[in-house]
Design goal:
The chain has six helices and eleven strands. The protein has 235 residues and is α/β, with parallel strands linked by helices. A hairpin with a 5-residue loop joins β3 and β4.
Length: 235
């Protein structure tokens, strides 16, 4: 059985699904606990006809996805106290809070934050600002490094902007601006590269259709492994 990665828009949400074609008479839609949506369709059905069938069941699909989401392990709420672990570029660092002039640095497995009054709210704000500063520099560096892979398109280097997004790591506008979640700086370098290349591929193909995934596969053959690592690490 051949398998394609497709997606449809439903309101403000996008439903991604794996499309399999078999010698059957009707469309079957499965939603799995790992948030994978699989559509098994007759061989003769066109992609548009399959997409129409998915849209008709979109409300049910999203309901199932929300149901399974409640069972996923979540990172406990952060307390922003000494000894608590926080990620940076895929590695765990412990917070070390001290009283003194405002400063923040990485030192031997620690993120050391010095503040006149290191209460959790202030520590959280300082750490968030530090992450954003690091993200701006690192994301731009990765973008510059991967752009030669798209040389045949003749693109200029797109603009990167940071935006907090509750359920997404990145997005690409029709104007060619790439938005990245600053929290992505907590993921590994290889995962960050995957997200940036993913969004660059959207400059060529707006939808998650077969052409999009063919391009992504040519540019980054191991993209699925990187995506899985990102999802596993950043839950």
């Amino acid at each position: 059985m051949s398998e394609e990665l497709m997606s449809v828009a439903f309101g403000l949400q996008t439903i991604a699904y794996e499309l399999r074609r078999t010698a059957r008479k009707s469309v079957r839609i499965q939603v799995h606990p790992n948030a994978t949506v699989r559509v098994i369709a007759p061989l003769e059905l066109t992609e548009d006809e399959v997409a129409k069938a998915v849209k008709q069941k979109a409300a049910w699909i999203l309901k199932q996805l929300r149901f399974f989401e409640q069972f996923r392990p979540l990172t406990p709420p952060r307390q922003f106290r000494s000894g608590e672990t926080h990620r940076y570029l895929g590695r765990q660092y412990r917070l070390k809070l001290m009283k003194g002039e405002k400063s923040i640095r990485m030192m031997a497995g620690f993120i050391e934050i010095s503040l006149p009054d290191p209460i959790p709210e202030t520590v959280a704000a300082v750490l968030d600002g530090w992450y954003r500063q690091r993200a701006e520099i690192y994301f731009q560096r990765i973008l510059t490094e991967v752009m030669p892979r798209f040389e045949s398109y003749g693109w200029t280097v797109p603009e990167i902007k940071l935006r907090k997004m509750p359920t997404r790591w990145g997005s690409c506008t029709s104007a060619g601006v790439i938005y990245l979640n600053p929290d992505l700086i907590k993921a590994s370098g290889s995962s960050i590269e995957y997200v940036i290349i993913h969004e660059l591929c959207h400059l060529a193909h707006r939808l998650h259709n077969q052409k999009f995934y063919e391009l992504l596969g040519r540019i980054l053959p191991d993209w699925q492994r990187r995506k899985q690592n990102l999802e596993r690490m950043m839950v």
